[in-house]
Design goal:
This protein is an alpha/beta fold and 295 residues long. The chain has 2 domains: 8-129, Rossmann fold, CATH 3.40.50; 143-290, 2-Layer Sandwich (Alpha-Beta Plaits). It has 11 helices and 9 strands. A 5-stranded parallel β-sheet has the order 2-1-3-4-5, sandwiched between helices. A 4-stranded antiparallel β-sheet has the order 7-8-6-9, with helices on both faces.
Length: 295
């Protein structure tokens, strides 16, 4: 049986020391790595033989990394390739510009090489799995969540029989993006995994056997339950998360209360079938987003 092809990573950086370190480390972990030091060369290399992922600096000798990302995103052959910015630029405006161009991650130098490898792995998993499951939490997202929410609609609206009674809980982690900027991607991923575990435990203790949990967005969780459980489940989740959020910060920051700008908070919204009727999936999502927060 032939061996599976290695994943190809294109490193775009004019700093040879950085490029060689990344190349050697990723090669040891089974990746094929190509390296170019110019933006124009990166675009031409990617178009000629599209890689599985691009790691690129912003400050390049010719065109900058933003222009490289824009041109890759504008071409049909390369528009879906994951892009990780690896740069010394730390300004929030630079980060936002990178994200607006469709970058999958933004890591500032100096960086942890192990963290970079995890970012590469997660980005490639996301592409391989499509939008079915979240690579960090393993929870369903995208199409799988939409399919479950569509079960809340009548079979043949408006004349068809109503759907079974249901209740939706939207759990939002406020300020996770700020937390991620301050403490790093690995710490933020740990928060998401811990919250996932706490939600699963809450469902096991206060929910129903058929309850569903998935991602509404990257930093939001959605739970499909029934009116029999939704109040107790919401209280259990809110109390458990609020009691635990402080422990996601380093002890030195907890003692000095230094994490106020990056303070995590949990917000819950609820929507029940009796607030309907709902004509389609968009209406359910819109009404859920506009629902008031639970005290």
């Amino acid at each position: 049986m032939p061996e599976p092809e290695k994943r190809v990573v294109l490193v775009v950086d004019d700093d040879l020391d950085v490029a060689e370190m990344i190349s050697a480390y990723l090669a040891v972990h089974g990746y094929t790595v190509r390296h170019v030091g110019l933006g124009e060369a990166a675009v031409q290399t990617a178009l000629a033989n599209p890689p599985d992922l691009v790691i690129q600096d912003i400050n390049l000798p010719d065109i900058d990394g933003f222009e490289v990302a824009y041109r890759l995103r504008s071409n049909r052959k390369t528009k879906d390739i994951p892009i990780i910015f690896l740069t010394e630029k730390r300004a929030r405006s630079d980060r936002l510009q990178g994200l607006e161009l469709g970058a999958d991650d933004y890591i500032t130098k100096p960086f942890d090489i192990q963290e970079l490898r995890l970012r590469v792995r997660n980005a490639m998993r996301r592409v391989a799995q499509g939008t079915l499951t979240n690579p960090i939490t393993g929870l369903p997202e995208g199409v799988l969540v939409d399919d479950r929410l569509e079960e809340c609609l009548p079979a043949n609206p408006p004349a068809g029989p109503p759907a079974e009674p249901w209740a939706l809980l939207l759990v939002s982690l406020e300020n996770l993006s700020r937390y991620r900027e301050h403490y790093g991607f690995v710490a933020a991923d740990d928060v998401l995994r811990a919250v996932t575990l706490m939600i699963h435990n809450a469902i096991r203790e206060a929910g129903g056997v058929n309850d569903f949990v998935g991602h509404f967005s990257a930093d939001e969780f959605i739970i499909v339950t029934t009116p029999l459980y939704h109040t107790a489940l919401a209280e259990r989740i809110k109390n458990r998360l609020e009691q635990s959020l402080e422990y996601f910060y380093p002890l030195r920051d907890r003692e000095r209360k230094r994490y106020q700008p990056e303070r995590l908070a949990v917000l819950l919204r609820m929507l029940t079938a009796e607030r309907g009727p709902f004509a389609n999936l968009v209406e359910i999502k819109t009404r859920l987003i506009k629902a008031g927060f639970l005290e």
